[in-house]
Amino acid sequence: MTSKVTKADSGTPMVKAEGVHKSFGPVEVLKGIDLEVKPGEVFCLIGPSGSGKSTFLRCINHLEKVNAGRLYVDGELVGYRQKGDKLYELKDSEVALKRRDIGMVFQRFNLFPHMTALENVMEAPVQVKGVSRAQARERAGQLLERVGLADKAGNYPTQLSGGQQQRVAIARALAMDPKLMLFDEPTSALDPELVGDVLDVMRDLAESGMTMVVVTHEMGFAREVGDSLVFMDEGVVVESGHPRDVLTNPQHERTQSFLSKVL
Amino acid sequence: MTADIDKTAGPESTPPAGPEAIKAIPVRHYGRYISAVAAIAIFVSIVYAFAQGQINWDAIPEYFFDDRILKGVGQTMLLTVLSMVIGIVGGVVLAVMRLSKNPVTSSIAWFYIWFFRGTPVLVQLVVWFNLGLVFEYINLGFVYKDYWSSFMTPLLTALLGLGLNEAAYMAEICRAGLLSVDEGQTEASHALGMSHSKTLRRIVIPQAMRVIVPPTGNEVINMLKTTSLVSVVQFSELFRYAQDIGQSSGAPVEMYFLAAAWYLVLTSVLSVGQYYVERYYARGSSRSLPATPLQKIRANLLSLSNRSGGGAKA
Predict the structure, then answer these.
(1) What is the pLDDT at residue B146?
(2) Nearest CA to CA, how far is A31 from chain B (Å)?
(3) DSSP string of B216-280?
(4) B75 CB contacts (<8 Å, ≥6 apart)?
(5) Which segments within chain B are labelled E, that is strand?
(6) How far is it, in rounded angstroms, from Cα A53 to Cα A46?
(7) CB atoms within 10 A of CB A199
(8) Is B29 an interface residue toward A (CB < 8 Å)?
(9) Per the database record, which ranges form the ABC transporter domain (chain A) (predicted)?
(10) Does B201 reach chain A within 8 Å, measured CB to CB?
(11) Which of A58, B26, B98, B273 could link B109 by a cystine bridge, Cβ 3.0 to 4.6 Å?
(12) Pairing status of strand A236-241 against strand A228-233
């Protein structure tokens, strides 16, 4: 933790949410979220299922459209351009350009099943950034080694365990050199004995100074690695603070009852 | 019963350690023997009936590689390939139109599919053939101008009739394929910063192919056979040439058999091709690729020799 390179002094928060609302039809999932993620920080989102934490995460890279409020990544508005007091929707290509810098890891891995582990990691640098195949292959090899899967480069996703697939997915996201990584319950679909490997990779990543927003049910990970923690319920932030404080000494009644069930 | 047990109870053949393998007398399926005998009897009697019939079988090998027949085979293959190309390209375009969020394009695609699937292809061919009654000229500005009748050659009529009809079927096959790919794949691709078209081309379509290829193979085989209809628009292919030879050589029925044999040869070749294409698109979808027919034969021969070897030992 001490080795962490914190760029927090630079001023602009990596993610800033101001009164973010999101509805699916008549159902309001996010009812005004305000929060700030500093650069280099590991920011954990916890809460019961249906509390809107995954939806909020998906808003950050514009996989979901925000209905009201403002959401900024690295000082830039997500999904829109502001001119005067008018908002203009960004074109698909502009949205894609911004997503390059934001890595995302999914609960269900979502590896490309028709490509080997190596090809999965190479795909985006070659197709999006125009990196040469040779360069991309070398980098992908290094990334697979970093997540401990150098020997599985030629395997297809179906030939890998869940934990291995998720580590390939992390390497795939890292291949784009993102400034921000989003983790959507990365260990929830794994066998308990495989969770540790994935968390080790994430811990390593946190120590290298990556800014991470992590939706998780792993309270141990949040306490050890997290710098900030937010407890969400029914679309609002109920409680926030340092993970150790919130997890050991929750102030709010709702947080207390949730933690008493999961800890 | 005791004899059976004696036969298998070789003391040397049992491995020294480990549990004793079960050696039971298998159930006898008498029903299977009876149905097999009955099926063979029916088959033999049909073959016998044909062999006894008033058919000059010698005429078939005599004309099998006749120049006109070979030309007809070539025309049939050409027509199949070109119509399928029109069908597949049109089908992909229609499927994308049908799935688009634009209500106008999706309605037009719906209407096209409704019309071309809802009318017989034979009727469509005849309509194309007689479209000269509606349009006297074809006029594409400075590029091309001609009488409709000289523009619509038999080949073009056949291609349009078969290809546009096929596009309607291919559209539904492609649509099913595109819908079969998990939404998470599109999300993952978008999250990596890939554009819509790259996502479609690199991620969605390769996975959709696994669903699209088997029914498309069916369509190719169907198309090969449907080409026999185009004699109504004066295009000559295998069936038409066989018919012509039949009339001039005085062996009409024999030439139908000949045509049937050629269609069988062609569809068999296509089936083998389809198998390998399917195998290619199956990579990554299961832990190991299915064996090729050659590998299967080899494996079967090996296991047979192993079995007989084991039996001999016992």
Answers:
(1) 78
(2) 24
(3) HHHHHHHHHHHGGGGGGGT---HHHHHHHHHHHHT-HHHHHHHHHHHHHHHHHHHHHHHHHHHHH
(4) B235, B236, B237, B238
(5) 137-139, 145-147
(6) 7
(7) 20
(8) no
(9) 15-259
(10) no
(11) B98
(12) antiparallel
Residue in chain B lying closest to A123 (CA): B202
Cβ-defined contact of B193 to A159 (cutoff 8 Å): no
Cβ-based contacts of B284 with chain A (< 8 Å): 113-116, 156-158
How far away is chain B from the Cα of A161, in angstroms, using its nearest Cα?
A: 12
List of residues 6+ apart from A57 with CB closer than 8 A: A45, A182, A183, A184, A213, A215
d(CA A4, CA A7): 10
Q: Is B296 on the interface with A (CB under 8 A)?
A: no
Residues near B138 by Cβ (< 8 Å), separated by ≥ 6? B144, B145, B146, B147, B148, B151
- Cα distance from A129 to chain B (closest Cα, Å)? 9
Nearest chain A residue to B205 by CA distance is A114
- Is A114–B284 a contact, with Cβ atoms under 8 angstroms apart? yes
**A191 conformational bin, left if phi > 0, alpha if psi -120 to 50, beta if neither:** beta
- Can you tell me the distance from the alpha carbon of B18 to that of B20, in angstroms, rounded to the nearest whole number? 7
Whole-angstrom distance, CA of residue A58 vs CA of residue A125: 22
**Euclidean distance between CA atoms B2 and B24, whole angstroms:** 12
Residues 6+ apart with CB under 8 A from B189: A112, B198, B199, B202, B203, B204
Secondary structure (3-state) at A43: strand
Q: Cβ separation of A113 and B284 shorter than 8 Å?
A: yes
Task: Check the CA dihedral B194-B195-B196-B202 and report its sign.
Answer: negative
Q: Is B302 helix (H, G, I), strand (E, B) or coil?
A: helix
A residues 170-209 near B, CB within 8 Å? 172-173, 176
pLDDT of amino acid B279: 85
| CB distance B167 to B83 below 8 Å | no
pLDDT at residue B162 tops 80: yes
* pLDDT tens-place string over residues B44-95: 999 999 888 888 888 888 889 989 999 999 999 999 999 999 999 999 999 9
Rg (CA), chain B: 28
- Single-letter amino acid code for the residue at B88: I
Is the separation of the CB atoms in A175 and A124 below 8 Å?
A: yes
- Tokens in use for B200? 């479609």
The structure tokens listed for A69 are 């409020």
d(Cα A11, Cα A38) in Å, to the nearest integer?
A: 8
CA–CA separation, B299 and B293 (whole Å): 10
Q: What residue of B is the nearest CA neighbor of A172?
A: B192
Return the beta strands (E) in A65-215 as ranges. Answer: 68-73, 76-77, 80-83, 86-89, 102-105, 180-184, 211-215
Per-residue pLDDT tens digits for A86-105: 999 999 999 999 999 999 99
Say whether residue B202 is in contact with chain A using an 8 A CB cutoff.
yes
Specify the amino acid at residue B265: V
